[in-house]
Structures are given as structure tokens and as C-alpha cells.
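Example (one chain per record):
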Amino acid sequence: MSDVHDNGAPPPALARPYSWTDGRTEPTVDVAIEARVVTTRSGRDMTPRLTSALWTVTQLCFQPRSVAEIGAYLAVPLGVAKVLVADLVAEGLVNVEATLAHDADDAERRELIERVLSGLRATR
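Predicted structure:
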């Protein structure tokens, strides 16, 4: 396997994001990728730690963001984003808002998918 891309840049390092989660790839609570995450009052009062992925997520979620958007902003795999969000939920630093009721119809589901895609495109 080559250690550079066709454009001459080194390949992206996945070790760092997984070090943020101590190698965990499964969240402690089930978090849907389309779920909206919003920072709690405790999260807003968190001491700034510029090198902390958890602090960064709390800052991103002052405005509600989907788990997929968080992953895109951090440039990490979705599994890492889900673990980070679950950790923050456990600490009371963010809340996860339900995006759809169990009886949501196809139009509501389609609208949700379009919102998530729009959010992901905006992070490029």
C-alpha cells in the first residue's frame, strides 16, 4: 500500500480520531446518525479545551447539528462521532433530540434525509 495519494499528499490518519474514543467504535447509547445534538447549559459552561474533541463537539452544537454533520465537521468516521456524542450525553453536556416519531410517514422521512444531506453538503 502506498503511503501517499495520487496528489502527493499523505493518506489521512485514522489513528487520531480513534484515540479520541480510546479505540471504541460502539457508543454506550444508541445514537442515530440523523439525530440532532444540542449543547446543554453545562456544556456551554464547559472550560475551553482547544485540543479536546469533546469540547469541540459542544461548541459545534450550540446550534443543533446531526451526528452525521458532527462527523463531517470533525472529519471522522461516523462511529467515532457517535461515541463522542454518547460520551457527552452521559456527562450531561449535550442532549439528543428525536428527529422522527416511530409512526412518521414517507414524506417526513424523505424531508429528514434531505435536511441531513443539505447539512453534510454545507460542511464541505
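Caption: The chain is about 45% helix and 10% strand.
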